Structure formats: structure tokens, C-alpha cells
């Protein structure tokens, strides 16, 4: 998008619309991926007994494909009329998307963020309940239960807090600003949103044992014995 806007002189309408579409598709895929992980985490706790039998590889691939098709559909919006090429005064900070259309996207994002917060709240409630049940069944000492629960809450707080810090300033700026604002403000706020996609895999890799197993398998073709013997706890959410 930066190359099309500033390196191609003058940029063609097709290149400008395509660059904006790719940007929207990438941002949508980033947000939808986090939402899909949140929903998957919620279902893994809510339907713990049937989760592994229902979430087959084929089902997972179908959901990922459906998500990417939806995001590509969002990326086609500038080509389908969500652009200000005929009326430059209506442009938003996400030129050539109009200010009204950018506001719709920003509000949609804030609604998705509210949905994620609600799901994580439910995850915390279920994790607390599971931790209490495990503590009673296995007669764990109170400190061990508290430590496990605190770790789970710190993981959720880290994920949700990072997401909010990276995305909400950009979403709010999209609501209040227009194309007359300096472009440097847009890029300085869009950069953290883009970097959120780099930060999340690091958080998941260090905090989630399931993803650690996948990384070990992908990189080394084996899984350390410590993973196979380790039971799943409330901190793994």
C-alpha cells in the first residue's frame, strides 16, 4: 500500500484499489484469526468431552478456508464501490476507502473486540470452575490451584491487552480522522496493528503448550517427553 501510494507516480486507479483491498483483507484476516482462536478456546472448555472428536482436521481446514474467503470478500469492497476516487473530499485515512465506509469497518471491529472480551470472560469463569473441581478431586493444595489460575488469567490478560493496545487506537482514529490529517499519523497507528500479527505467535508459543508441541513437531519432528506427561490445566487456556 505504501509503495503504490508514494512510489508509483501517478498511481493507477486499479493499483490503488488493489492495494487498499489487500490491506483490508490482511487486517481482516488478522482480526478474524484472533476471533477464531478465541471461539476455539471457548469451545474447547465448554465442550471439553466432545471437543477433540468434533474438531477434526477437515472441519478445521474448512473453517480456515471459510474465514479467508470472508476476508478476501472484505478486500473486494473497494473494487465494488467502497472508494472515493470520484469524490476526494469523502476519503478516509484509509484512502481510497470513504470515511463512512471506514467508520463502518471501525465499528465492526469494536463490536468484534467486545465479542472477544465476552468470550474471554466466559473462558475465565469456566477455567475457575474447572480449577476448583480439579482441586477437590485431586486434593491439590490451595497455593497450587491459585498459581495455576493466576497463570491462566495472566495469559488471557496478556493476549487481550496486547490486542487492545495494538488495534483500538487505530480503530478510534479511523472514526474521527479523515484524509486531511497527516499521513504519518495513520502509518504510526497502523504499524502497531500490523505488528500485532508478529507478537501473537510469540505469546502463544511461550504460553500455550499445544502450540509449543506443534512448533516442536514442525521444527524438530519430535515432542519432548515433558509435554506428553504433563496434564492440561486451567493455565493452558
From TrEMBL:
<dbReference type="Pfam" id="PF00001">
    <property type="entry name" value="7tm_1"/>
</dbReference>
<protein>
    <submittedName>
        <fullName>GPR12 protein</fullName>
    </submittedName>
</protein>
<feature type="transmembrane region" description="Helical">
    <location>
        <begin position="17"/>
        <end position="37"/>
    </location>
</feature>
<feature type="transmembrane region" description="Helical">
    <location>
        <begin position="102"/>
        <end position="121"/>
    </location>
</feature>
<keyword id="KW-0472">Membrane</keyword>
<keyword id="KW-0807">Transducer</keyword>
<feature type="domain" description="G-protein coupled receptors family 1 profile">
    <location>
        <begin position="1"/>
        <end position="204"/>
    </location>
</feature>
<comment type="similarity">
    <text>Belongs to the G-protein coupled receptor 1 family.</text>
</comment>
<keyword id="KW-1003">Cell membrane</keyword>
<keyword id="KW-0449">Lipoprotein</keyword>
<keyword id="KW-0564">Palmitate</keyword>
<feature type="transmembrane region" description="Helical">
    <location>
        <begin position="184"/>
        <end position="206"/>
    </location>
</feature>
<dbReference type="GO" id="GO:0005886">
    <property type="term" value="C:plasma membrane"/>
</dbReference>
<keyword id="KW-0325">Glycoprotein</keyword>
<dbReference type="InterPro" id="IPR000276">
    <property type="entry name" value="GPCR_Rhodpsn"/>
</dbReference>
<dbReference type="InterPro" id="IPR000723">
    <property type="entry name" value="GPR_3/6/12_orphan"/>
</dbReference>
<feature type="transmembrane region" description="Helical">
    <location>
        <begin position="153"/>
        <end position="172"/>
    </location>
</feature>
<dbReference type="GO" id="GO:0004930">
    <property type="term" value="F:G protein-coupled receptor activity"/>
</dbReference>
<keyword id="KW-0597">Phosphoprotein</keyword>
<keyword id="KW-0812">Transmembrane</keyword>
<dbReference type="InterPro" id="IPR017452">
    <property type="entry name" value="GPCR_Rhodpsn_7TM"/>
</dbReference>
<feature type="transmembrane region" description="Helical">
    <location>
        <begin position="57"/>
        <end position="82"/>
    </location>
</feature>
<keyword id="KW-0675">Receptor</keyword>
<keyword id="KW-1133">Transmembrane helix</keyword>
<keyword id="KW-0297">G-protein coupled receptor</keyword>
Amino acid at each position: 500500500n505504501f509503495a503504490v501510494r508514494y512510489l508509483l507516480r501517478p498511481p493507477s486507479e486499479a493499483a490503488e484499489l488493489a492495494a487498499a483491498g489487500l490491506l483490508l483483507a490482511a487486517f481482516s484476516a488478522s482480526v478474524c484469526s484472533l476471533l477464531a482462536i478465541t471461539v476455539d478456546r471457548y469451545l474447547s472448555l465448554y465442550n471439553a468431552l466432545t471437543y477433540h472428536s468434533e474438531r477434526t482436521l477437515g472441519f478445521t481446514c474448512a473453517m480456515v478456508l471459510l474465514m479467508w474467503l470472508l476476508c478476501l470478500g472484505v478486500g473486494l469492497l473497494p473494487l465494488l464501490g467502497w472508494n472515493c476516487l470520484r469524490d476526494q473530499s469523502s476519503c478516509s485515512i484509509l484512502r481510497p476507502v470513504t470515511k463512512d465506509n471506514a467508520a463502518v469497518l471501525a465499528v465492526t471491529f469494536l463490536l468484534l473486540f467486545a465479542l472477544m472480551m465476552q468470550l474471554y470472560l466466559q473462558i475465565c469463569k469456566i477455567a475457575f470452575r474447572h480449577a476448583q473441581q480439579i482441586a477437590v478431586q485431586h486434593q491439590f493444595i490451595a497455593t497450587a490451584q491459585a498459581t495455576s489460575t493466576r497463570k491462566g488469567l495472566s495469559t488471557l490478560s496478556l493476549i487481550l491487552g496486547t490486542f487492545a493496545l495494538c488495534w483500538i487506537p487505530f480503530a478510534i482514529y479511523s472514526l474521527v480522522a479523515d484524509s486531511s490529517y497527516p499521513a504519518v499519523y495513520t502509518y504510526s497507528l497502523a504499524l502497531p496493528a500490523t505488528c500485532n500479527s508478529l507478537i501473537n505467535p510469540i505469546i502463544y508459543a511461550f504460553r500455550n503448550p499445544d502450540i509449543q508441541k506443534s512448533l516442536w513437531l514442525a521444527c524438530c519432528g519430535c515432542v519432548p517427553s515433558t509435554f506428553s506427561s504433563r496434564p492440561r490445566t486451567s493455565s493452558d487456556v
